[in-house]
Amino acid sequence: MKLDIIGDIHGCFDEFQELTLQLGYDWGKGYPIHPDTRKLAYVGDLTDRGPQSLKVTEIVCKLVKESLAYYVPGNHCNKLYRFFLGNKVQLTHGLETTASEYDSLDEKSKHTIRKNYMKLYENASLYEVLDDGKLVIAHAGIRQDYIGQYSAKVKTFVLYGDITGEKNPDGSPVRRDWAKQYRGDAIIVYGHTPVKEVRIVNNTYNIDTGAVFGNKLTALKYPEMEFVSVSSSMPFVEEKFRKF
């Protein structure tokens, strides 16, 4: 199994395209295909905050439909799904940018985008266990004892991390550093928490290098365990990066 696992894109389509080109993918058919049968994988949070969220979802929907990629949802994916369901969700924390893109479309385009995205989300695994259990892709990570479980408690952990229920002064949730306690054999690849450089702790790899906050978009090549990154075109926002 040969994968290129991409961190949180958050609507940064240009960076996504540039990264796949660097990884050797061909866009001749309008979406990235690798000549050596490598596949893409996504840690979730395709949308929100960046300039071209819906274009990112279109490409990922196509790739997953053609069995050319793996996708697991993030918390922003979950919120967009609830928005498309018609639930009352707050247009904050980036969803307002995706909703604005959506509102500017004609009705036919809206229907297509909504239908394809909802199908992508509904068919997605909460997390992916791949390569005979050697690799797990989960948006905010996963505890060893949660692998194989799909309860509401596990879903909260996978989407939001190991949250305590408390809030930081900026309103963001307080999260425990679950990776420090991880002792499993499986490689865990995740995102969710922006870091300036890939964070490797106890066989866990946080590859969300904050593309939408002006740093870079990163891919992890598996099984080579090599990193490929492209610089972001977005303004740099220092306070969005977690310090450990």
TrEMBL record:
One of its GO terms (molecular function) is phosphatase activity. InterPro entries: Ap4A_hydrolase, Calcineurin-like_PHP, Metallo-depent_PP-like, MPP_PrpE-like. One of its GO terms (cellular component) is cytoplasm. Residues 1-195 form the Calcineurin-like phosphoesterase domain. Pfam families: Metallophos. Gene3D superfamilies: 3.60.21.10. NCBIfam families: PRK13625.1. PANTHER family: BIS(5'-NUCLEOSYL)-TETRAPHOSPHATASE PRPE [ASYMMETRICAL], METALLOPHOSPHOESTERASE. This is Bis(5'-nucleosyl)-tetraphosphatase PrpE. It comes from Cytobacillus dafuensis (Bacillus dafuensis). The lineage of its organism: Bacteria, Bacillati, Bacillota, Bacilli, Bacillales.
